[in-house]
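Help! Submission page says 'invalid entity' but I think these are all valid:
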Amino acid sequence: MSSLAATVRNIFNEPGCAKNGSKSEAERKNGCTKQLQPGSAAGGCAFDGAKVALQPFTDVAHLVHGPIACEGNSWDNRGAASSGSNLWRTAFTTDLSETDIVFGGEKRLCKAIKEIIDKCDPPAIFVYQTCIPAMIGDDINAVCKAASQRFTKPVIPINSPGFVGSKNLGNKLAGEALLDYVIGTQEPDYTTPYDINLIGEYNLSGELWQVKPLLDELGVRILSCISGDGKYREVASSHRARAAMLVCSKSMINLARKMEQRYGIPFFEGSFYGIQDSSKSLRQLARLLVERGAPTDLLGRTEAVIEREEARAWATIEPYKPRFEGKKALLITGGVKSWSVVAALQEAGLELVGTSVKKSTTKDKERIKELMGRDAHMIEDMTPREMYKMLKDAEADIMLSGGKSQFVALKAAMPWLDINQERCHAYMGYVGMVKLVEEIDKSLSNPMWEQLRRPAPWETLAKAVEQMQSPLAAIACDPAFAETTRHARKNCVCNTVDLGTFEDAIYAHGLRSVAAVREHTNAVGDCCQRRTEGILVSEPSAMRQAAE
Amino acid sequence: MAIVTAPTKACAVNPLKMSQPIGGAFAFMGLRGAMPLLHGSQGCTSFGLTLFVRHFKEAVPLQTTAMSEVATVLGGYENLEQAILNIYSRAKPKIVGICSTGVTETNGDDVDAYLKLIRGKHPQLANLPLVYVSTPDFKGAFQDGWEKAVERIVDVLVEGPGANGLRDPSKVNVLPGCHLTPGDLDELRVIVEDFGLCPSFLPDLAGSLDGHIPDEFTPTTIGGIGVDEIASMGRAGWTIAIGAQMQRAAEVMQVKTGVPFRVFERLCGLGPNDEFMMFLSEISGRPIPLKYRRQRGQLADAMLDAHFHVGGRKIAIGAEPDLLFDLSGMLHDMGAQVTAAVTTTQSEVIERIKTKEVLIGDLEDLEALAKTNHCDLLITHSHGRQAAARLKLPFYRTGFPMFDRLGAGHQLSVGYRGTRNLIFEIANLVIAHREENDQPTPDTWRTAAGLPRCSGNRSSTGAAGRSIA
């Protein structure tokens, strides 16, 4: 395990990481070993992180070496999309039994690799280490090495057992495995001055394809996307790219920086969430490529595309702006999305009442301040209870978050939109932003919310009865008393005019409009407009008919 | 009598099975104010949590002791202690259910001893029930975890008979297997209550995961059977166990309290429900309510209408033992042939499944069997969707997890009414599939010399051969 420990230390000492950079020397020595809190932890393990980062490689067989929990409980749970092979959606696991744990699982692993090659013959197999084989000392590096030689096929060990740390660490360990065993092992068929890598883009819901048409139009070729809709051959030859964009800055910064170091591929951190961010990213991509020798006309062509796309997107969003006026959103998400989505939502005219910064770096926070102003409500750590209260008190009209907190919002009968990995809509690029706005509008304007927030009729009745402070039975037995209480019911809350006054005025003067009623009574007419209309159209009550 | 075959391959492909610890945690989710806690690395919890959330579309309480590599080497006492204290002060649970995982079983954490130490050190926990169940990932499956957890809950929380030993014959304990949905439990509750009996369900997922909207936000389960009610289960007149997996828990209950039990291995189908009704009538001393006489008629009629479509069909089912036994039995009773059966773990019922062979295997096995045996219908949980698409077969989702359709918590299979609806659903799938894929053509029945017979339109006897593209 010493080599894994060294790798972990190495990752924690990431100079490209802004959070790490801002630490003191002593702090840095401790690494990012933030202790997870037993009993109040959430989120995945390092194995989860590694799997999430690499699983979107579509033509690779992903073999999980561990007991059934690691793969059996988790497979086929991500919405990454593939334009070709579906092999990534097939789950392979050694499903270790008690016997394997006593005698060691290496032989089973080796047999499993052979079975996969015989059955599917994939271009490569990724073997994921998990806690138990790591504990009992299964040396997956050695098994993979032997298997690679025996079967003349890349068998890549992904050494990221769950208990070494968080999901994010797992993302990075996955990046290290690519650097150690995959990148640079093959050559592309041809290269162009427009070859780029996208790092940390997972093509969830096929969102990469919301941006790819623009890149295609500009002649920019995605040599390798790590890892959305990726293929083994592409990532193996990704060292020939001219520039790289780090899409999710948190997950694979080590990979981007080390590729710059080893292969001289410059990279920038960008985002395709939001209109302005998309434009910025396209510009930066073009600039980097031109700096690396691409013809300078790329810059002009990029500007033209940006101008056209921006105009188109703004025009589509414009009609929504008045609909969003005064609407407030609460954003609970991690890292880069905390600011890139803020910008996007503001573009659509929504007011942000808060954004979470739990996983964000100082740099991320500064960006948020730039966007939301100095007094931005940055939420470090919000418990579900607080979230629920905030929504219930209608401090926000809609919440955007990951799947885990969705029920907090939905159970408070508040609109909610999934902007994390489990979502079923794609929100990237210009078209994605329009889609996001459409979805928000659909959610906000749904007439369902009003019905759901209305209490059940018997609850309203119970409350009214309570207010009258009289037993229901008395009302039921005595129609005269019932009529008095009905008359006494407040119709105009703002000016405490009771129902009886209203009805008397209406019948005495033969009033037919709300405005007229307002003149004859003391009612203000805002709060009670609908109720007054109700009285105007309804039949006179039985009591009154009887009296007449 | 079916032959039970164990797997020989080294690599499980597309697992049908899920792990024991989450099965155990699932049982605790049917207790009110509960917080299930997995003693293991945080991924064990996070995967399970995601699975439950995707299935029920509900917030699900599940915590972790967040074992790190160092903690695993040093032993998990401190993590367990911290986790319990944290949960105690933050979530204020009525009960904490602890399940071990592969990691903590491999390093040999003695959780029972840890709990004693923790209790000794923290007197404030005196009134907080802590139920521990050993559920290593590398043994058994989801159903086993549930079985063990319920057995432990009965063992730890049910009180022995009081001094006077008074029983309330109108009280009935119901121990449902993990293959029943919250909807099934609601259906059973109504049935039992209609006989004037007062049931206590353990676990009661219908109280916690039926999808109701709570008034207040709570980090623990939002309903289910309370600890006090569990304690008083020893005063019931009878225990009804549903599914063979609940036999052990029922036995423990009887040993502890003397409450007699009866196991109903199946509650899907005409015969099993007749038995159930007769039993309820017997223990309650009441006649079968008119409502169920009518429902029985409706089920009989549904069977008549559906047998044209279901009879003779070759069916491939992958499910946990009790669900497999129940569903395959019902379909067999309707004249279908179960020609591919795959399950997850050993159980005494599987050799009584009405098919030739039951394989303890994965969905790759089920897919291969369905293909070679020319099955017409695939029944398994949502993970079967890829196989169904490849085989181009109608696909009925059942069991856990069901993450790509809504209403998993309310899918019914018990009772006359539940069976009736299930039969309609399955028959409709078959009908729709035939209309979409098997319209007769002028060449359907042509048997030109040298050409294999193409039989797009199969008779209900299933005699005609069929090739699956």
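Support: the input was valid. A stray whitespace character was the problem, and the output above is from the cleaned input. Chain B has four domains: 20-139, 168-294, 298-429, 438-469.
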